[in-house]
């Protein structure tokens, strides 16, 4: 638990709920190197889940400090940096300014590998809460009532994963030798869906037909003049026009797919995920 949390009552309540479930909370601050080393010395695995989308460069700086403490402590058996999205190693071509998200993750990876820190990179694809109930619309987290903007023909495949399943697969990896120094992609088969398939699922569940408004890629990219949302627009372009989550095969060396490694995880399908938004 970091004192920087300050008066973030939601984060504090979340941490206390972990404690109620048996977790042991340690106080440490990324601004106190010695205290951080002492905390890291007490654990075998460090998982960083710092939000990158909002505090990018701050996040980079903090994760590098965490990495310094891990190097000095010397006892950590596995470090999982805050990835959990697209594979940044495959986003070298990403549009400005959203590319910073991936450039910074690659900087953390370089520092991890230079430090010979045992690691696992989790490419979790799309967090369902951000992408599914809103049928992939931006600037909302709730289902549309009348109309839905469709990216291109709406047939580009993306991958949507319930956050609890992302956590379940992640915990399976942390002490699995098969995941050591590898990138693990989360591609649960039935959650590999296009925007059109998501829309059809919602229409079936809600009994409503939505008006579909196609957005051609050039029009979508032109909306990047909206300076407030340039980062997000770039990310959504890569996901829903380029298909960057599904336009490559997972390699045999250094890469694994989680639902094949851990078939025992009963992952949530997206029609079930949508239920609570009805
Ligand atoms: C997209 C966002 C949602 C932003 C990734 C503006 C990095 C990734 C799939 O930056 O977390 O409305 O992998 O109006 O590696 C951002 C993230 C969310 C877009 C979601 C992203 C996905 C970034 C918005 C919005 C819902």
UniProtKB/TrEMBL annotation:
Residues 12-274 form the NmrA-like domain. One of its GO terms (molecular function) is oxidoreductase activity. SUPFAM superfamilies: NAD(P)-binding Rossmann-fold domains. Keywords: NADP, Oxidoreductase. The keyword rRNA-binding does not apply. The keyword NADP applies. PANTHER family: NMRA-LIKE DOMAIN-CONTAINING PROTEIN (PTHR43349:SF94), PINORESINOL REDUCTASE-RELATED (PTHR43349). This is NmrA-like domain-containing protein.
């Amino acid at each position: 638990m970091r004192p920087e949390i300050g008066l973030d009552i939601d984060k504090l309540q979340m941490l206390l709920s972990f404690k109620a479930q048996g977790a042991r909370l340690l106080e440490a601050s990324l601004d106190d190197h010695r205290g951080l080393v002492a905390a890291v010395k007490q654990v075998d695995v460090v998982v960083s889940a710092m939000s990158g989308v909002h505090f990018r460069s701050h996040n980079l700086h903090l994760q590098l400090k965490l990495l310094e403490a891990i190097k000095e402590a010397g006892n950590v058996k596995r470090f999982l940096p805050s990835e959990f999205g697209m594979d940044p190693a495959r986003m070298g071509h990403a549009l400005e300014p959203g590319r910073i998200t991936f450039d910074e993750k690659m900087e953390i990876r370089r520092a991890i590998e230079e430090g010979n820190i045992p690691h696992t990179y989790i490419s979790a694809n799309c967090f369902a809460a951000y992408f599914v109930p809103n049928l992939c619309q931006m600037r909302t987290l709730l289902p549309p009532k009348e109309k839905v903007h469709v990216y291109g023909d709406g047939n580009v495949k993306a991958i949507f994963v319930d956050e609890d399943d992302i956590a379940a697969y992640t915990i399976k990896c942390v002490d699995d030798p098969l995941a050591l120094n590898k990138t693990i992609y989360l591609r649960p088969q039935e959650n590999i869906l296009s925007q059109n398939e998501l829309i059809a699922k919602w229409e079936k569940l809600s009994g409503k037909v939505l008006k579909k408004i196609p957005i051609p890629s050039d029009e979508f990219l032109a909306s990047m003049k909206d300076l407030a949302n340039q980062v997000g627009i770039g990310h959504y372009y890569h996901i829903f026009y380029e298909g960057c989550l599904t336009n490559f095969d997972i390699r045999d060396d250094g890469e694994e797919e989680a639902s094949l490694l851990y078939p025992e995880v009963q992952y949530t399908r997206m029609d079930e995920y949508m239920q609570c938004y009805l």
